[in-house]
Design goal:
This protein is mainly alpha-helical and about 475 residues long. Helices cover about 70% and strands about 5% of the residues. Helix 12 links the parallel strand 1 and strand 2 (about 205).
Length: about 475
């Protein structure tokens, strides 16, 4: 899809959201007006208008893709969201629940009774049920498992047995397997009998009678080769494959590296047990990116923007409390130099510049390091070189921009010594920012934590306190 097509699709989605919002607003306005009117036909008029608006809204929802409805639900306040959710056809509930974010899904499931949840879940595949099961009431999950056949039940249990960050939790069980000793013509006849292929089928999986993976047959090879040839002659015998215990994010990187659409998942005996598909990998990368952004801001989990005040408070308070402590420490650093500030008021005006630039530089460094760690580009062998490089970049930036702000300080206050102190403080604080920008994520990783967890909060605390101490300390030594 070209950039223009993406923009048009996004604009179209925004238009649809605006139309839904307009219908909801119109419904509220009409209801309000009819409530104010008096008369024996008032209830009848209100009922007719109300139903007309809902029918129009439902017709518009029926024309939308489940992913588009999910987008609209996430963009609506809770009451409007539930109004729209109740108008969605029941046979589409499952698809939409799989598309919405975890936080929004909780609000939708809370509005459904057990019968509705079971009806929605019955339309899902085993891997989709495994995704949804942890968020369903336990008695509903138990009842749902009882309705599955033995194979589906075993597949769901298998998927649930893996951690959510492992390949096994994301693998799909819907795939086409063939034997290596049959002709391509036989394979084509077999596919025609299926009438429909699983989504993202770009290759068929070749297995023996024990289910051991022997290779893969890309669809393009199947179509362009002589139908009389055997599968063994044209199949790829060295496909990229994964084990269920492998890290899912490593698998996602492999999908990007090798331009995969699907890939087999095998157990320790090379027996085919499932497959990974590009849609799951794209979702994983998006979720990982969102989680990283939230972690850097100190948010513990994804937050519904229309969540209750109390829920949002619980999600945000922890790192704000830490931020308050670090801010208090920074204020105590300033307090140590109250006498210096009283004697030279210019210090009060200039010190936020040192801290602010240091914080920005530190965030740049920490973003680069976290990204490199996510891509497995950081190893014990290159850590020291990486540190030297970041310190060198900060030194150059400090001398250049510190010199600029030093010249500005000289121009404003007529003191060359103040300008020199400003340049030195800026340079030293940028070096501190680079050092902390490398050490913070690496230390978190060694402690088994997410390298991005609260990183921006910690780097800001370090550069604020450090910047104030460096600048005011140098000013006290050389200016007073």
């Amino acid at each position: 899809m070209t950039e223009v097509e993406v923009k048009k699709a996004q604009e179209s989605l925004q238009d649809r959201l605006a139309q839904v919002v307009e219908l909801l607003q119109r419904q509220r306005v009409v209801e309000d007006l009819t409530h104010r009117q008096e008369g024996q036909h008032n209830d009848l008029v209100e009922n007719l208008v109300h139903r007309q608006n809902l029918v129009e809204l439902q017709r518009k929802l029926d024309d939308l893709h489940p992913a588009d409805i999910a987008y609209i639900l996430e963009a609506l306040p809770l009451q409007d969201r539930l109004t729209v959710w109740q108008l969605v056809r029941s046979d589409r509930d499952g698809d939409i629940l799989l598309e919405v974010s975890d936080s929004v899904r909780q609000s939708l499931i809370a509005d459904m009774d057990d019968h509705e949840i079971l009806a929605a879940a019955k339309e899902m595949d085993a891997d989709e049920l495994a995704d949804l099961a942890p968020e369903l009431p336990r008695d509903v999950v138990h009842e749902l498992m009882e309705t599955l056949d033995a194979q589906q039940r075993e597949r769901v249990r298998s998927a649930l047995s893996y951690d959510e960050e492992q390949v096994g939790a994301l693998m799909d069980f819907e795939m086409v397997t063939i034997r290596e000793d049959v002709s391509l013509e036989v394979v084509l006849r077999y596919l025609r009998r299926l009438k429909e292929l699983p989504n993202h089928t770009d290759k068929l999986f070749v297995v023996d009678y024990d289910g051991i993976l022997k290779g893969v047959l890309p669809i393009k090879r199947l179509l362009v080769n002589d139908p009389e040839r055997k599968v063994a002659e044209v199949m790829a015998t060295d496909p990229v494959s994964f084990h269920p215990e492998e890290d899912a994010y490593d698998a996602a990187q492999a999908f990007e590296r090798y331009d995969l659409v699907s890939a087999p998942v095998v157990d320790k005996s090379d027996r085919l047990i499932g497959r990974l598909t590009i849609d799951e990998m794209v979702d994983l990368i998006r979720e990982e990116s969102e989680s990283e952004v939230l972690n850097m801001a100190g948010l513990r989990e994804e937050e519904d923007i229309f969540a209750s005040v109390w829920r949002s408070f619980r999600n945000r308070w922890a790192w704000l409390a830490i931020n308050l402590i670090t801010a208090f420490l920074a204020s105590r650093v300033i307090g140590l130099f109250e006498g210096s500030i009283e004697k030279l008021v210019a210090l009060a005006a200039l010190m936020p510049i040192v801290a602010g630039i240091g914080g920005n530089s530190g965030n740049q460094t920490i973003t680069m390091i976290v990204r490199a760690m996510a891509l497995d580009q950081v190893s014990p062998g290159n850590t020291s070189r990486l540190m030297r490089k970041e310190l060198a970049v900060s030194l150059i930036n400090g001398l250049v921009w510190g010199g600029v702000i030093g010249a500005v300080a000289f121009w404003l206050y007529g003191s060359w010594s103040l300008g020199v102190v400003m340049t030195a403080a800026m340079t030293l604080n940028l070096l501190l920012a680079a050092l902390m920008g490398v050490l913070i994520p690496m230390t978190l990783a060694r402690l088994g934590r997410d390298p991005a967890m609260g990183a921006s909060v910690m780097i800001t605390a370090a550069t604020d306190s450090g910047g104030f101490f460096i600048f005011l300390g140098l000013a006290t030594l050389f200016l007073l």
